[in-house]
Amino acid sequence: MSAAAFLKLVEIRTKVASFTPFLLGNLYLVYHYSNFNIFNFFLFFFSLLCVDMGTTAVNNYQDFLRAKRKEGYNYEEHNAVVNYNLSEKNVKKTIFILFLLAIVSGILLYLNTDVIVLIIGIISFIIGILYTSGPVPISRTPLGEIFSGFTMGFFITFLAVYVHNLDLIDLVINNSLLIIEFKYLDIFKMFIFSLPLIFGIANIMLANNICDLEDDLVNKRFTLPIYLSRSKSLKLFRYLYYFSYLSILAAVLLNILPLISLFSLLSIFIVQPNINRFEKYQSKKETFVLSVKNFMIINYSIAVTLLIAVAF
User: Fold this and answer.
1) DSSP of 172-228, one letter per residue?
2) Which helix (H) or strand (E) covers residue 171, if one does?
3) Beta-carbon neighbour count of residue 291 at 10 Å?
4) CA-to-CA distance for 296 and 241, rounded, in angstroms?
């Protein structure tokens, strides 16, 4: 398998959806805490990247196996298995290696942290597998946006902080009782902070499903837009961005984000035209990328303000 085929199979350009929560989680860590473990930082990043690439490869392979429509942009060009005429054996081998690397690095991270990392890692791994495979993959149901948004938007952000601060959650065994102690206020603040990530990732999934609505009907992928209709899905697409901006305002008012982060609200003047353009025309080839751009614009504007706050 060539490097170009591999990068297409794992859709490397889409890894921004997992890298961004990782980056913002670490910026949140530096802004609010003093602990930083460089070894855990790289272990988590490598494991995260391998899981994300492996899940995407499985998704492309499953689409190749299940697809009934054999023509159109979404199949011939978007699916790497068809585009590069990849053998099923090589695709399976690649998926196996990626997940093996993810498991090994994940175990090393667990050995260097605690069981909470292992538990969340296993849950995320199972969700990743069920998201793209099984009798009814999550990605083919109306729950795809919820699972992708929460798992990637919150779990990644939380773990990016937790692997450096193991006292956020404690498991204590006392006289045959399992007691869970956690700093609920810290975790709540982290959740509020991650809302623009959750909504942005959900909107990437939503935009993808809106663009694929007709093909999904043929291929029996009963995604959220099929249940909501195109018009209502486009309204949801718009409102999720507005909720992102409201969550930024709330985070500043609750001292979760610095005052300077209010400047990130100005990104609406770039995001709004992209929303309008996507509402007028939904195309995997031409306008789907706007959801990725909006995700980056909103969250990297937050990242820049955090960097400034940390530096000064």
Assistant:
1) EEETTEEEEEE-HHHHHHHHHHHHHHHHHHHHHHHHHHHHTHHHHHHTT---HHHHH
2) strand 169-174
3) 26
4) 12
* Contact status, residue 295 vs residue 199, Cβ threshold 8 Å: no
- The torsion angles phi and psi of 181, rounded to 5 degrees, stand at -115, 130
Distance CA 107, CA 85 (A): 34
pLDDT per residue over 143-194, tens digit each? 999 999 999 999 999 999 999 988 899 888 887 888 888 899 999 999 999 9
- What pairs with residue 210 in β-bridges? none
Could you tell me if 279 and 238 are in contact, meaning their C-beta atoms sit under 8 angstroms apart?
yes
What six digits make up the tokens of 278? 């996507």
Element of type H or E holding 288: none
What pLDDT digit, counting tens, does each position of 38-72 carry? 999 999 999 999 988 988 888 788 777 766 455 55
Does the model's pTM come out above 0.70? yes
Tokens representing residue 121 in the block: 């890692």
Return the CA Rg of the chain: 20
> Residue 243's closest CA among 282, 194, 189, 276?
194
What does each C-alpha distance from 91 to 58, 65, 132 come to in angstroms? 9, 12, 15
Q: Please report, for residues 54, 199, 258, the alpha-carbon distance to residue 241 in angstroms, rounded to integers and kept in the order given.
A: 29, 7, 21
- Strand, helix or coil at 169? strand
Per-position b or e across 134-172, b if 16+ CB within 10 A of its CB = eeebbbbbeebbebbbbbbbbbbbbbbbbbbbeebbeee
Q: Give the HSE-up count for residue 175: Cα atoms under 13 Å, Cβ half-sphere.
A: 0
Q: Where are the domains of the chain?
A: 3-311
How many CA atoms lie less than 13 Å away from 242 in the CB half-sphere? 7
Q: Please state the separation of Cα 39 from the chain's center in Å.
A: 23
Q: State the amino acid at position 28 in one-letter form.
A: Y
- Report DSSP letters for 33-73, one per residue: -----HHHHHHHHHHHHHHHHHHHHHHHHHHHHH-----SI
